[in-house]
Amino acid sequence: MAHKSVFDASAVKSEFEVAGINPNFIPIIWKHVLQNPNCMWDEIPSLPVAVYSLLRSKFKPSTSTLHSALDSIDQTTTKLLIKLKNGEFVEAVIMRYDTRLGKYNGKPRPGGLRSTLCISSQVGCKMGCNFCATGSMGFKSNLSSGEILEQLVHATRIASIRNVVFMGMGEPLNNYSAVVEAIRVMTAPPFQLSPKKITISTVGVIHAISKLHRDIPNLNLAVSLHAPVQEIRCQIMPAARAFPLERLMNALRDYQACRFISPCQQKIFIEYIMLDGVNDEEQHAHQLGKLLETFEVVVNLIPFNPIGSLSRYKTSDDQKVAIFQIILRGTYNIRTTVRKQMGQDISGACGQLVVNLPGKGLVVNLPGKGSSRSADHITDIEDLRI
Ligand code: SAH
Ligand code: SF4
Q1: How far apart are CA 143 and CA 40, in angstroms?
Q2: Is 95 helix (H, G, I), strand (E, B) or coil?
Q3: Ligand 1 pocket list (CB less than 6 A)
């Protein structure tokens, strides 16, 4: 039998249960693996004998390998190319922010240097958004919860990760149970990330959104809306037919209503890719403003990253983006940021993450999330919660 990842929490827990071993040893094992990347099971001190033989026969410290890590020239972005045990590749991107450069209420932000990790949840994606390189690949496979966590484990060896965003390859809510399981581990020892520092970005899988706030309270939700009306949404995102805008907005309203019951009023982030002549005109800004004005949202306008020959779209010019932002802010009082791409020299920006393997040519494209720096000094969506 192939060995599983020791970070596949449910598999480890059920094997421990069958063997009658106390599950409290599991975080101790994870901690050791985090601190000792290439450890052998026998090197972990003070475990019951039965644990060693169980680990040896069923689990590996890592089923994926870090194939390469590429830094951008300005050192803000590092792209990790990770090989999964099925031979496929995914990418994860580390984005470093110096919070002191940004301003919050006119003062330098607290916190200093911190890193956000953008991770993948699937190889490929079945949603087929026609502006997205991953969409053009179709769906290849789901990552296990262990493979999702291993991206964090690999990245932790390079940077201290404070935020995680599911904005790499794949639709996280189409791999719901593995993503939820991975987040549960991320928010427990030894990782102990706050759920408020974890963001799931979704195309809008309505039934899963409704389940999510019950399964993991306080998580950040980012919705890739990209159009203010159903017709344009369907044109650029075929999945919109299955998830009609009106029903999606109702699900978001319920999601937000639940938030208001808890003391922690987290916003929903709306991602809006700016496609020249498609969804970036003044009338679209007004339609979007009307659609969102009764919600507690932050809109993130994303300049489209051309994806080579696949691309039928053009990036909106800066002036159009600025007018769009002014309308949303000025007329509808909606907090609106503009994402500026960085890390392009390593193909680390949205929709441009392209893996080049020596001798293999282009292997993987994924959307991911490039580093961002907005017009009003909000460097990424997590900054809004500090
Ligand atoms: N499937 C999820 C998460 C992965 S995509 C989702 O769609 O939300 C992460 C983000 O990258 C999404 O907002 C997506 O719309 C955006 N994206 C995809 N292709 C892009 C491109 N070519 N240029 C800019 N952003 C892109
Ligand atoms: Fe899938 Fe997201 Fe790309 Fe759409 S934008 S094809 S949902 S990865």
Answers
A1: 24
A2: strand
A3: 131-132, 167, 171, 201-203, 224, 271, 273, 302, 304-305, 307, 350-351, 367, 369
Q: What percent of the chain stands above pLDDT 70?
A: 81
Section 58-69 average pLDDT: 96
Note if the bond before 303 is cis, omega within 30 degrees: no
Q: Is 234 a catalytic residue?
A: no
Atom of ligand 1 nearest to the CA of 168: 4
Distance (Å, rounded) from C-alpha 126 to C-alpha 174?
9
CB 282 within 8 A of CB 295: no
Residues 63, 150 contacting (CB under 8 angstroms): yes
Q: How far apart, in whole angstroms, are the C-alpha atoms of residue 371 and residue 341? A: 6
| DSSP code per residue over 287-339 | HHHHHHTTS-EEEEEEE----GGG----BPPHHHHHHHHHIIIIIT--EEEE-
pLDDT band at residue 74 under the 50/70/90 scheme: confident
Q: Write the single-letter amino acid at 216.
A: I
Whether the predicted pLDDT of 379 surpasses 50: no
Catalytic residue among 129, 171, 350, 382: 350
Cβ–ligand 2 contact at 134 (below 6 Å): yes
Say whether pLDDT at 101 is over 70.
no
Task: List the beta strands (DSSP E) in the chain.
Answer: 4-5, 59-60, 65-71, 77-83, 89-98, 103-104, 107-108, 113-118, 122-124, 139-142, 161-166, 198-202, 220-224, 268-274, 297-303, 335-338, 353-357, 361-366
Q: Average pLDDT of 338-357?
A: 57
pLDDT of residue 179: 98
How confident is the model at residue 275, as a pLDDT?
A: 97
Condensed to tens digits (0 to 9), the pLDDT of residues 179-188 reads: 999 999 999 9
Q: Give the span between the Cα atoms of 185 and 27, in whole angstroms.
A: 9
CA 33–ligand 1 middle distance (angstroms): 32
Identify which of 125, 126, 165 to mutate to test ligand 2's pocket (most ligand atoms within 8 A of the CB): 125
Q: Among residues 129, 174, 150, which one has the least CA distance to residue 307?
A: 129
What is the spatial distance between Cα 200 and Cα 299, in angstroms, rounded to a whole number? 15
Residues 327 and 85: their CA atoms lie apart, in Å, by 48
| CB of 285 shorter than 6 A to ligand 2 | no
List Cα–Cα distances, 305 to 200, 311, 350, in angstroms: 21, 9, 6
